[in-house]
Amino acid sequence: MRGEMGEEGAGEEVGVDEGGRGVGVLEGVQGEESEAESEVSSVAEPETFEDFDWLREHLLLYDVIFQTDTAKEAAFIEGAAALFCTSRVQGPYDILEPGCGTGRLMLALAEHGHHVAGVDASATALEFCRERLTQHGLTGQLQLGDMAKDEMGNAEYDVAHCMVSSFKYLLTEDEAVRHLELVAAALRPGGLYIIGMHLVDYEYYAEQGERERWRELREGLCIDAKILSSPPCPVTRREEVDTFIEVKADTSPEAPPIPPALSKYQGRRFHCHWQMRTYDLEQLLATLQAVPALQLLSFHDFSYDINVQADARLDSDQLTALLVLQKQA
Ligand SMILES: C[S@@+](CC[C@H](N)C(=O)[O-])C[C@H]1O[C@@H](n2cnc3c(N)ncnc32)[C@H](O)[C@@H]1O
After folding, report:
1. Dihedral, CA atoms, 308, 13, 26, 74, nearest 10 degrees?
2. Residue 164 in contact with ligand 1 by CB distance below 6 A
3. Is 167 in the pocket of ligand 1 (CB under 6 A)?
4. Residues 18, 27: Cα–Cα separation, whole Å
5. Does residue 244 form part of some domain?
6. Locate the Methyltransferase domain: which residues (predicted)?
7. Residue 129 belongs to what domain range?
8. Residue 47, pLDDT score
9. What is the reported pLDDT for 29?
10. pLDDT tens per residue across span 110-144
11. Domain total of the chain
């Protein structure tokens, strides 16, 4: 199935599941492998992969993998602002992205005329982001910092957002709560904080954890990524995540030539490991309640449709959460 054609290339999703991490596929490993899954399983053994930190090196790989839903995510942020934001009558809005990474959403929102700012702990990601904005004749305010420790502003923003489970990079309750307090301080009263993240089902994934798989095309390259997560534990709430990436040439007839700067990636395989904190719906709601300055207004899922509410009951089996929180006066 061909995904959306972005300005920077074509994305190809290989299968779709409602629980996908924003892009690509999320599959419980308890069922039979799909054709796509068995295909990616046939990539080389893990020891042939080069270890790397995908948030600090070869940022293009990270950026390609997460590109698929960018337009939908940006539209959701703008739709939520138009519906719920009361700090400003209408856009353009002042928008903050804690954990902005390579700035794919900053670019999409800046292109629509919003004033964008991003905070990230990775200097290389910020550099990628700065160059990308500059190449498009746009600017953004970029801050190297820790989104759980450093001030991100004082009543300066109408909207803040943190998509693709970046909130789960905060590994303790103290960090998560402090982060929410810092975002609340950065927002104007009536402003919004939008969080998109995966939830876990501790029972369903207790044995084997989860798998996700993406295949994306950009600038003549085909990037195949497989993500394996350890079984989530409701006590430690630490998920060990391994990503295996294989970069090949895009052999489709319409593929553009690979630019010289990117040819170094062709034929290489990469591996990275990181940790995330896990949340089920109850745990997420408990963390949010610790910061009354942000009140939950609206609950959605990764269909990114602002007009469709998701099921926010504790007994639901909702596995993606797209939350709209509002800064109280
Ligand atoms: C999954 S990426 C998401 C990037 C971007 N928000 C997007 O949607 O494409 C998570 C980002 O959060 C950053 N990050 C993780 N922990 C952080 C922290 N404590 N403070 C600031 N940035 C952090 C990482 O460096 C990375 O760029």
Report:
1. -40
2. yes
3. no
4. 10
5. yes
6. 95-191
7. 70-199+279-327
8. 57
9. 33
10. 999 999 999 999 999 999 999 999 999 999 999 99
11. 2
Q: What is the model's pLDDT at position 164? A: 94
> Does a structural domain hold residue 16?
no
The tokens 């999409």 sit on which residue? 108
Q: Is the CB of 125 under 6 A from ligand 1?
A: yes
Is any atom of ligand 1 closer than 6 Å to the C-beta of 182?
Answer: no
Whether 100 and 162 share a structural domain: yes
When pLDDT is cut at 50, 70 and 90, the band that residue 6 belongs to is: very low
Q: Is 121 in the pocket of ligand 1 (CB under 6 A)?
A: yes
Structural contact between residues 134 and 240, judged by C-beta atoms closer than 8 angstroms: no
| Distance from the alpha carbon of residue 320 to the mean position of ligand 1, in angstroms | 18
pLDDT of residue 212: 83
Do 163 and 206 reside in the same domain of the chain?
Answer: no
pLDDT band at 147 (very low <50, low <70, confident <90, very high): very high
- CA 32 centroid distance within chain: 27
Residue from 61, 101, 114 nearest 262 by CA: 61
